[in-house]
Amino acid sequence: MAWLSRPLRARATGSLLWPWLCAASVALSLLMLATLLTLLATRGLGHFWPAELEEVTLHSGDTVIGQPVREAPLPNAAGVERLYFTGNRDIGGESWRWVALDDIDTVAVPDDLIRLERAPWGDFIGRLDEVESAGQRFEDEAAWAFVAHAMTLPESQRPIAQLRLTAANGQIITQPLEGITRFQAPNAMSWEQKVVAWSERIWQFLSEGPRAANTGGGVWPAIFGTVLMVILMSVIVTPFGVLAAIYLNEIAHQNRLTRLVRIGVRNLAGVPSIVYGVFGLGVFVYGIGGSIDSWFFEDALPSPTFGTGGLLWASLTLALLTLPVVIVATEEGLARIPDAQREGAVALGATRLEMLTRVVLPMATPAMLTGVILAVARAAGEVAPLMLVGVAKLAPQMPVDGEFPYLHLERKFMHLGYHLFDTAFHGEDVQAAIPLVFATALLLVLIVLVLNLTAIFLRHYLRRQRGNEC
Amino acid sequence: MLALSSANPTQAPVTRFSAETCCLSINQFHLAYAGKTALRDLTLDVPRHRVTAFIGPSGCGKSTLLRAINRLHDLNESVTHHGQIQLEDQDIHAPQMNVTELRRRVGMVFQTPNPFPMSIYENVAFGLRLQGRLPKRKRDDIIEWALTSAALWDEVKDRLHRSAWQLSGGQQQRLVIARTLAVQPDVLLLDEPASALDPISTLKIEELIRNLKSQLTLVLVTHNMQQAARVSDYTAFLQQGELVEYGPTDQVFTNPRLQRTENYITGRMT
Amino acid sequence: MTPPRLPFSRQPLRLIHDRIATGLITAGGVGVLLAILAIGVFLVWEALPLLTFGDALSLNTLSPLAWGTLKAALAAMLFATPIALGAAMYSALFMSKRLRSRVKPILELMEAIPGVVVGFIAGLLLAPWVEQQLASTLLVLVWLPLSAGLAGGLWYLASARVRQWLPLSWAGVRLMPWLAIMVTLALWLAPLMEQAWFGGDLRRMLDQQYGLDYATRNALIVGIAMGFAVIPSISSLAEDALADVPANLREGAQALGASRWQALRKVALPTAGPGVFSAVMIGAGRAVGETMIVLMASGNTALFSASPFEGLRSLSASIAIELPEASPGGMTYHLLIFAALALFIFTFLVNTLAEVVRQRLRQRYQRLGGNR
């Protein structure tokens, strides 16, 4: 910009460059958020779409059948290679295969390729030859019809049958029907069929337990555990948070001490969640839980009942963690109510309790709700403290069942966030689990975002209501 | 009817009424906020079924006195006081005095209308519900009576269950008065009730005040001299927490005994 | 017209109810507040036995973790502070009101995204990608601010009609496609530049010439991921401080002929400075305590290294990994509790300081001419 005179140049950089940089910061933040959400949505939901299977013939004469996943440059040479998910862990040992594009002779998408999801070995990808059931043999169309019909029946009513399958390398295996959880021929499916299959799989993801070391199946126990823990937490945190806020704002003498306490409470909202986890482990689990064990569950010792992480301790820890959120939100709501309302009630002869319950608390309800929702949103996404006080990678029993006392507060439970962490970082076949991890992450983010949006709308409503009053 | 017990022209006059006409009796009342004196040795009697106006410059303590009569200062720990306020010969600060009952008997209306965020009906029923259960018929009767007394019934009878916040400012203030009347107080304290209202609403409130004195005793705080002259029977002039002059409104406005009072009334206050 | 007398039956009960309720609320409130404050007491109490071990060496095991914590926080702040403050200044002073009312909730949503999700994306997606495309990443980091400046320059040279069509007050959103295009361009250009300047492989060159190791999960990744997580909290706090600067001050400056930017720099920024500072501190407090992102994106190697390309291990991540295994009463247990105490004290101090600064600021604004 040498052609600009100096003062003009200074002015140009000042009033142009910096504001645009600032604007770009906003744009960048939004862009990052959008990218993250799009990534989660496409990868999370895309996994359930019945992807086309390719039959690739290489120059070497080998055949690879699988689902193309992604492409990357070759590590030590020019060119690109493609990753195929080939399944069939029981045959080749590997369920992934990199194929250099230069090696490929032909790529075909034949309709008769099938994909099975099976209990012990994960996915099978290949062809269906024939089905044998009760001494009868079905081939080709009849075999297809047989399996397709059998899969529509409930599991207990399926006939006993053996499937003869051919893998890509020509090896033939026999697979009993009972181990199969899904039967698909994605290449032969119409668009509508794919949509139906897609929604079915999403439903399965939401309603079933994990299978095959978290690489298949769903996250229902984790959803259940998260929701149950959050409900317990809000049952604890709401009354206590509201009580503390009422005490601070309506009853305590407003002096230096209350101001200090208020700052302290506010700051606790900024204390790292892991610190609360440490507190929960030391006080709830080892302290209180240990004592309960030595008093009431002595015969079970040394294996701990309450003296180890569990649902109750997790809920309590998160309740403590979210108390400041509820207290601060409620207090803000209370402080916003004009004193004229309180005096109006008192001047009519109301006691303090009557003033609180009939005038002040009804007016502060939206603020309290906002606080509780924000607390729930925070608790639903919090993982670190749970790792210390009771989350499990695979809980053998649900915390609620038909056995007395029905709600088992001492049991470990599964949690969406921890499930995500564990599958992504400690799984056996991380590569295969990643799509499900994406789906889990999407679910978690959706839950948290919906809760937050509710809180935002509530607050908006609150402000509008206040606007009417003025 | 007026029996002056002191006629010293330089001192603040102590104005007393004979027992049967005196409703509120304030005796050497002293009040301080966190050590700062707000009311100093105040002594005056408020006559029954009359409108008494407290006038004076901002910060003279007139609102403080009003709030003290309702014991609203109980909510604030930094307030200290001594001296007596008697309502019908009962000391309102006496330990056996039930403060909620006192506040029922002494209604208060504030500067800005403060209806609760409920329906019009519920606003008026609020004080009644505090007193205990009433058959619905009887409650409806009292509410109609209170709204009629506050000259609001005709305007709201078709929308009793709508939100009170939808009413205009003047209507809200009359609703607040109706709400107070519903619990049948003996005294109604009005703290600048019309200062936030437009002239027409103000006139309506003033007319209401004049009509209400057949039912109860009214005490009005105002900074509007014409208003005090228009509606009140007696006027007390306060300055810096002290009572300067107290007497029948005509006398205070047309023939004040003290120069200070005259200066204020004629606008020559410095 | 006089209504029937009222019954006054409930009087004594009402007062008793009120007493009981007040007592209960007081007890509950004080109890809750004490329970919250008990956290500090517990941590101190459980960390005290460390003194009896009398082993100075034990603290040495914490020092690389403390270093890792600081390094991660520093990296995050380096990434987040400029973006967050830029965003705060823009949305407080330049953005159109309508846009602001929409962008603010979106930034709140960004704050709400769970750390475990951000950490997963960073550790499993971003880290391997950056490892392969290190040059592109670095180029993008440099290129982004330049391209924003370029946009400003182009806008300045554009005709009045274009300027009216693309006002600065909407640039926060309109720049998004521009930035996306610029990132794509940078990604396309990066391999060529790497070929030309770094001999085709930046990582190998860093290793051979400067002896810098490259770990897949490293401080750079942690910085970006955790920066992403703290941007919204810094920016919303800083924005509040800036937007609350009494309007008459800024308008006064502008009436004297200052441009909007000058008014911002000479008046709003100095006035709101403490508030902006406290926003940054609160962000730093969050970055120091964040667990899941560091756990998933840092590699968890306890190293003393200043290189942004090497892994680290933070206090919080160590607590999360090791504490469930540590036997209560053992030295590791007490040591980890001491680590938690350190985190607690640090964040508590930082937040208190920030809060005090903010309260002072609020008082100053009230003195300076009140509300917005």
From TrEMBL, chain B:
Residues 24-265 form the ABC transporter domain. GO terms for biological process: phosphate ion transmembrane transport. Keywords: ATP-binding, Nucleotide-binding, Phosphate transport, Transport. GO terms for molecular function: ATP binding; ATP hydrolysis activity; phosphate transmembrane transporter activity. GO terms for cellular component: membrane. InterPro entries: AAA+_ATPase, ABC_transporter-like_ATP-bd, ABC_transporter-like_CS, P-loop_NTPase, PstB-like. Pfam families: ABC_tran (PF00005). Signal peptide: none annotated. CDD domains: ABC_PstB_phosphate_transporter. This is Phosphate ABC transporter ATP-binding protein, PhoT family.
